[in-house]
Amino acid sequence: MSGIPLDHPLVARADARIERAAAAWRGNPAADRVFYALSEAGNHSVIWHAINATDALVVPRHRPRAMRRSVLLGVEQAIVNVGIKSLFKRARPDAAVDHPYELRTTHTSSFPSGHASAGACAATLLSRDLGVAPLWWGLAAAVAWSRVHVGAHHPSDIVAGAVTGRNLARIAGRIWP
Fold first, then answer.
1. How many Cβ atoms from other residues are within 10 Å of residue 14's Cβ?
2. 50 within a domain of the structure (yes/no)
3. What stretches of 67-147 adopt beta strand conformation (E)?
4. How many angstroms separate the CA atoms of 131 and 62, rounded?
5. Which residues of 69-108 are buried (b: 16+ CB within 10 A; e: fewer)?
6. Is residue 164 part of a domain?
């Protein structure tokens, strides 16, 4: 991967500044409820597969496209979580002492965020197939931000994940239109 190294002072300063802003919202009952729920819904791309399943059930002619999106999302997650993450050994942020809600512990590299990559991949595919891009991208951004809120990722992990997911969706769209 080219660009600024993860240990570059600019990355560290940006991450620290954004993480401080996120920490200010931790402990807010409404924010915690929303972001812990979104983080959980993003595990294994459950939220995106549920949207695809709903689309397939509500609009039967959409079934092939919904199935395609879920298959592509599964491939994208394998590439990111098994392939790309194994190339980086970035530590996750220091764990919060007390999580107000249960949080699944992950043992993979922090970089890039699988939640953010899945969200960007899903938003790209859903926008192309169903329109209403602001809805899908807003939901993807909320799921991605949830990972910073709960302390599971650095903000730069989120940015890299989103770029990765978007690019993989674009490639997949050319291979399997």
1. 16
2. yes
3. none
4. 13
5. bbebbeebbebbbeebbeeeebebbeeeeeeeeebeebee
6. yes
Mean pLDDT (whole number) for 92-98: 70
Residue 157 resides in a domain: yes
- Tell me, yes or no, whether 100 lies in a domain: no
Instruction: Tell me which DSSP letter residue 80 carries.
Output: I
Do 116 and 165 contact (CB within 8 A), yes or no?
Answer: yes
Q: What is the pLDDT of residues 136-167, one digit of tens each?
A: 999 999 999 999 999 999 999 999 999 999 99
Domain span holding position 65: 9-87+109-175
Q: To the nearest whole percent, how much of the chain has pLDDT over 70?
A: 93
**Token pair for residue 92?**
């996750």
Quote the longest CA-to-CA distance of the chain: 51
Of 17, 51, 163, 26, whose CA–CA distance to 103 is shortest? Answer: 26
> How many Å apart are CA 112 and CA 108, to the nearest integer?
10
Distance CA 75, CA 68 (A): 11
- The number of folded domains in the chain is 1
pLDDT, tens digit (0-9, with 9 covering 90-100), for 4-53: 677 788 998 999 999 999 989 988 999 999 999 999 999 999 999 999 99
Which residue type sits at 67? M
Distance CA 57, CA 39 (A): 25
